[in-house]
């Protein structure tokens, strides 16, 4: 349908082996939670973008927006 508009908001989080909680399920849940937070930030920043989670110093890694944007 040409009258339907779609937007995409993607949140990205990085996970490292053996970092954080020792329980694998807890690590995965924490990773998903961080990716979810980044996705909602992408939506708040205008949608149609990929938003990476903040690093411990507050910087964003690889955030990109708009059609054809690269990280």
Notes on the structure:
With 71 residues, the protein is an alpha+beta fold. The chain contains one helix and three strands; from the N terminus they run E-H-E-E. It has a three-stranded mixed β-sheet with strand order 1-2-3. The radius of gyration is 14 Å and the shape is elongated. The termini are far apart.
Gist of the model:
The chain is built from 1 helix and 3 strands. With 71 residues, the protein is of the alpha+beta class.
Instruction: Tally the beta strands.
Output: 3
Could you estimate the helical fraction of the residues in percent? 25-40%
| Strand line-up in the sheet with most strands | 1-2-3
Mean pLDDT: 78
Produce the secondary structure layout.
Blueprint (H helix, E strand, L loop, with lengths): L8 E4 L11 H21 L4 E4 L11 E2 L6
Parallel strand pairs: 1-2
Antiparallel strand pairs: 2-3
Keywords:
71 residues; alpha+beta; 3-stranded mixed β-sheet; 3 strands; elongated
């Amino acid at each position: 349908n040409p009258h339907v508009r779609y937007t995409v908001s993607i949140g990205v989080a990085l996970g490292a082996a053996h970092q954080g909680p020792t329980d694998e399920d807890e690590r995965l849940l924490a990773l998903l939670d961080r990716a979810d937070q980044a996705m909602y930030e992408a939506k708040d920043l205008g949608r149609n973008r990929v938003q990476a989670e903040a690093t411990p110093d507050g910087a964003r890694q690889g955030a990109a927006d708009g059609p054809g944007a690269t990280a």
